[in-house]
Structures are given as structure tokens and as C-alpha cells.
Amino acid sequence: MNEIKRRQTQQVQIGNVWVGSDHPILVQSMTNTDTVDAEGTALQVKQLTDAGSEVVRITVNSPEAASKVAEIRQRLDDMGCNTPLVGDFHFNGERLLRDYQDCAKALAKYRINPGNVGKGVKGDEKFAYMIEQAALHDKAVRIGVNWGSLDQSLAKKMMDANLALAHPAPADAVMKEALITSALTSAQKAMDLGLPKNKIILSCKVSNVQDLIEVYADLAKRCDFPLHLGLTEAGMGSKGIVASSAALAVLLQQGIGDTIRISLTPEPGAPRTQEVVVAQELLQTMGLRNFTPLVTACPGCGRTTSTVFQELARDIQHYLREQMAVWRLKYPGVESLNVAVMGCVVNGPGESKLADIGISLPGTGETPIAPVYVDGERKVTLKGDNMAQEFIAIVEEYVETNYGANGAKRSQNRVIPIQTL
């Protein structure tokens, strides 16, 4: 398999993890709780962490919210959750950092959008204060430029200059250049103010797939800062998943991106953790990282009118993901385990033999038995109403035997772990 060559970047410390080309691409997420609710926010950060998020952003938009950040950090520490917290600041960030120094200290990174810090001299002063606080407290900063909140004075200046040319560029090309210019000039200002270069991460988010690819490809050529990838306002459900995956996959294939977030609008009642699962599965299916054993399953056809294999595939996938909170510590390397749940005899035995563990369920009209293959060899044949439980027991035995303390596969195919302090 051809290995994706990562773009070389600075290495940036965020709390107890590292970001950059020498380290695995991190999964980031964001809470949607009211930060004033310290208990609820801490619990959601813990849920996101348990799902696999390695950095979590929280909204810091008011004095009440800023006053709770240190408590949230303490609650997480008490739960044994050391996930770095990123403060999302807009409009009044400099005042909140000034008035709530415990907030400034508790956060691992500040997210600053130069487009809404302020205008003119006042905006420059606000930006400067936030950067100075980051330098004072040895914090990383993400300078995050967004299409919807681009600095309008910069955009107007660049549009006017473009119109004065004999052959003006298209307006959308100027706007994309304005995004990149805003990020790069803001990063230079931050360094001029005393923030070390290895404390800066950049992002230039837009909501259109092709625009995002073009902007990041250009930005990546013009700096060596780590880049945070995300399609902003991606949308809900399959639209948001497909759009984010389409954009980020192209960039990741080019070696661009050091942290990613899938900015999904949650379906009513859906868990916030879905964005984490999608981000992990994107990185894993591209071969960039392993997070949890994945299930290979056929889509079903006229041979598989029974829903048994669908239910078993679903149950096994859920089971494997739920176990990872414990398994990733107890069974190193288990994240590379491959399981197949197939629905009939056409591809079932072949796919099952190729997987570490596979089960080939009977299709319509076939003998009601399900052979189970382990490391390519037929191990046992299951039948009856307890196949799911019996198959899970076989998976558990395989994991203990192969990834336990003396397991033969304990260190095989293992992706470099996240470096922590």
C-alpha cells in the first residue's frame, strides 16, 4: 500500500498532545452545551473523549462562561480525563482573558478569528492582547479564518486593488486569496508580538467542497504551520458526512492536514459523538490511523431477504466501538482487528477467510448454519438463536489470545500512538 507523505510542519504542543507532521493527525470536536453549565459541559467533553476525540473546543462567549472554564478543567481532571480544552473566542476574547485569568490558564489553546476580533486600531489592540496572553501562559493559538466572518476591510482593500488591474481576477479568486492573506498576516503579527512560531496553527474554513480544497492546497504551499481541516457548516446527516469526507479526503491524500473536525449539525436526539466517529472512520478508511476494529459487511441483495446479517453487523460494530474505551489500554494493537459479517455464500466464505474473524450467515434458501473463520481457517459452525452472543464470545477470545499480554499480534500493524507528556 502506498503511504501518504505528510506535508512537513512545525510541531505544536496543545496541553498533553502534539500536533504536526511528526505526529498522528488528531481528531477534534466541539461541545454544544452552554459553557455556563460546568457539569454538563465537562460530561460532554468526557463523552467526546470516550468516543475518541483528542482535542475538544468549548465556547467562551461571556463572563459567565469564562468564569466556569477552570471548574470544567478541574471536573475533567477529577474524572481522569486530560483532554486539552480549546477556548473558542469571538468579539470579546481579550476582555474575557483579561478578567478571568484562571480561564486563560486552564485552556490549552485559544481559537482566534481575526475577522471578528474588531476593526482598525481597536481590533489590532484586542488581537495583540490575546496573543500576549497566549505567550504569557505558554498556550497554543489557532488563527481560524472563516468565509462567513472574513475581515471585510481586508476583503474590500483587496477587491479594490484587483479592480484597478488591467485584467482583474474573478471575485471569488480574490476572496479566496483574502482568506489566505488574513491567516498568514495574522500569524506574522502574532510572531511579531512574541508568540513563538511553534505555537501557531492555522485554518481557513469555507462551506463549499471545491473552494476548501483550493484554499488549503494554496495555503499549504505558502507556510509550514500545522493546519486544522474542516468544512464549516457542513450540514446534517448524510449531506454533512459526504461533503466533509469528500473535501477532507482529497486534502489528506495530498498530505495536508494535522487536525480535523467534522462539523456536523446533529440530527434531533442524535449523540454529539457522531462527528468524532465520522472523523475517525475517515482517517481509518484512508489508512492514516487505526482507532477501532472495523466490520466488513455486504450490502445485501435478493439472496439475503433475512435481516439477521444486518442486525449482527450493526450489533458487532457497536460492540467493538463500545469496548475500545477499555480495549485501547488493555489490548494494544486491537484497533487494527478486522471482522467480517457476510450475508450469503457468494462472497461470504471468501471475505470471512480474508478477515481476522469472519462469519458467513446463510442467505435465503440456504442451509441455516453460519461457519466462522479465524485467521483464514474454519473454526466452528454456529446455528440457532444465539449466534450473535456466540460470535461475540469468539471475538473476545480472539482479542485476549492475540492482543493480551502475551498475544502474538499485540504489536503488529500498530499505528504510532499519540505522543503525550
Automatic annotation (TrEMBL):
Organism: Vitreoscilla stercoraria
EC number: 1.17.7.3
Binding residues annotated for [4Fe-4S] cluster, in chain numbering: 298, 301, 344, 351
Cofactor note: Binds 1 [4Fe-4S] cluster.
Annotated metabolic or biological route of this protein: Isoprenoid biosynthesis; isopentenyl diphosphate biosynthesis via DXP pathway; isopentenyl diphosphate from 1-deoxy-D-xylulose 5-phosphate: step 5/6
Annotated protein name in UniProt: 4-hydroxy-3-methylbut-2-en-1-yl diphosphate synthase (flavodoxin)
Boundaries of every IspG C-terminal domain copy: 295-396
HAMAP family found in the cross-reference section: IspG
Alphabetized InterPro entries for the sequence: Dihydropteroate_synth-like_sf, IspG_bac, IspG_bac-typ, IspG_C, IspG_TIM, NO2/SO3_Rdtase_4Fe4S_sf
Cofactor(s) demanded: [4Fe-4S] cluster
Family that this chain belongs to: Belongs to the IspG family.
Annotated gene: ispG
Entry superkingdom: Bacteria
Limits of the IspG TIM-barrel domain: 9-279
The reaction(s) this protein catalyses: (2E)-4-hydroxy-3-methylbut-2-enyl diphosphate + oxidized [flavodoxin] + H2O + 2 H(+) = 2-C-methyl-D-erythritol 2,4-cyclic diphosphate + reduced [flavodoxin]
Keywords, comma-separated and alphabetical: 4Fe-4S, Iron, Iron-sulfur, Isoprene biosynthesis, Metal-binding, Oxidoreductase
Gene Ontology MF terms in the entry: 4-hydroxy-3-methylbut-2-en-1-yl diphosphate synthase activity (ferredoxin)
Pfam families tied to this protein: GcpE, GcpE_C
Job description of the protein: Converts 2C-methyl-D-erythritol 2,4-cyclodiphosphate (ME-2,4cPP) into 1-hydroxy-2-methyl-2-(E)-butenyl 4-diphosphate.
